Amino acid sequence: MDFNATLFGQTIAMIFFVWFTMKYIWPLLDTAITERQEKIADGLAAADRSQHDLELAQKKAAETMREAKEKAAELLDQAKKRHAEIVDSAKDDARTEAEKIIAGANAEIEQEVHRAREELRKQVSVLAVAGAEKILQRNIDASAQADILDSLVAEL
Amino acid sequence: MAETSTGYIKHHLQNLQVCSTDAGWAFNTAENPTLCAGNFMTFNVDTLGFSVVLGLIFLWIFRRSAKKATTGVPGKFQCFIELIIDFVDSNVKDTFHGKNKLIAPLGLTIFAWVYLMNLMDLIPVDWIPGLAHAMGVPYLKIVPSTDVNITFAMSISVFILIIYYSIKVKGIGGFTKELTMNPFNHWAAIPINLVLEGAALLAKPISLSLRLFGNMYAGELIFILIALMGWYQLPLHFGWALLHLLVIFLQAFIFMMLTVVYLSLAHEDH
Predict the structure, then answer these.
(1) Interface membership of A49 toward B (CB under 8 Å)
(2) Which among A106, B47, B152, B175 has the fewest CB atoms less than 10 Å away?
(3) Cα(B205)–Cα(B217) distance, rounded to whole angstroms?
(4) CB distance from B27 to chain A under 8 Å?
(5) Rounded CA gap, A96 and A89, in Å?
């Protein structure tokens, strides 16, 4: 347990070890730790930021969805209205067309009736003349009584 | 090693030494263990050698990690190293508030190195000396911190740093004033102040080294005593080793912490 030159040996060793640590070990590890701390801090900040962005995006998406729904409802309304209009106008068209056809048919019937009546009149007048001829066979001149016959025909 | 208990203990406490004698450099031998006693030009080959080897192991481990250090995801080994770095760094930052590139690496070196030196205490006391004996080496003390030369060399280095920073920060005048005008701020009290402050200053390196030396020497001695007990040593050895595990860490931590505290006191200008 004497003091001896080991003191100097150990002192030299210590100076070398401390110098080596100071020069080649501590700065490297310290820098690595500090840089990683910065990286982690940045990462956490970025995560916070993206969380915020996500919330914003969700809000925006919800709004867009709502707008789209409103627009769709509007379109549906318009379409219904338009459909009703088309149906109405089609009904109107059909009615007018039907009326036209009915009027045409009526007119034709009228015409037909008229023609048939004319025909009938002619035939009745011929028949009346023939009958009158038969009744008045004698000296009755058909042509002399034509005016009477005509007035008769007109009365029919 | 069939000897008496006294011989066994003495054998374990004897350093392997080399000293400069009249006939040149010579090792102490089993026949003449005290060849170097009282000769200042003596090197304790065993403790100094183990101390240097352990210091180199510390440098190698940390240098390897430092070279591979990544700022990305660290591996488990790097995590472990960084844990130690962070432990030292936070202790230094808590105590020392100035800017000094030396103190943190100094703290780390002291902590890791002293820890490794103390750790040798946990190797069963007969293993390595027994191995050395078989190889013809008569003595081998493997725990450097049980050698008062080793601990004093470290505390004196710290002491020189204390003086250096005291003078650098406060100037020679400031440092002298601190030694002479405290605690009684009067010119008549200068001798008393000088004695008090001088004792306080000198007590720093002495207590620093004797604390470590005393703890480790006592621990080692108890390990040796336990080893004398035959089969009963097993449970006792286990218990003492368990307790010593705490002492080893604590002494390394205290040495580092007090170094940092003393150096930060040296930086404080009153």
Answers:
(1) no
(2) A106
(3) 18
(4) no
(5) 11
ipTM of the complex model: 0.90
Residue A146 in tokens = 């034509």
B48-59: pLDDT as tens digits: 999 999 999 999
- Kindly tell me if the per-residue pLDDT of A92 is higher than 80: yes
Tokens representing B139 are 């003595």
Range of the domain at B125: 5-266
Q: How far apart are CA B51 and CA B109, in angstroms?
A: 12
Span B197-209, pLDDT tens digits: 999 999 999 999 9
Using a cut of 0.90, tell me whether the model's pTM lies above it. no
Helix, strand, or coil here: A112? helix
pLDDT at A105: 95
Q: Which of B44, B65, B215, B264 is catalytic?
A: B215
Helix (H/G/I), strand (E/B), else coil: B142: coil
B90 is catalytic: no
CA B74 centroid distance within chain? 31
Indicate the number of domains in chain B: 1
The answer, yes or no, to whether residue B1 has pLDDT greater than 50, is: no
Query: Rounded to an integer, what distance in angstroms lies between the CA atom of residue B224 and that of residue B13?
Result: 9
Is residue B211 part of the annotated active site? The answer reads yes
Asked if the model's pLDDT at residue B105 lies above 60, the reply is yes
Q: Which two tokens stand for residue B26?
A: 């010579």
Between A26-135 and B103-119, two packed helices, what is the crossing angle to 10 degrees? 110
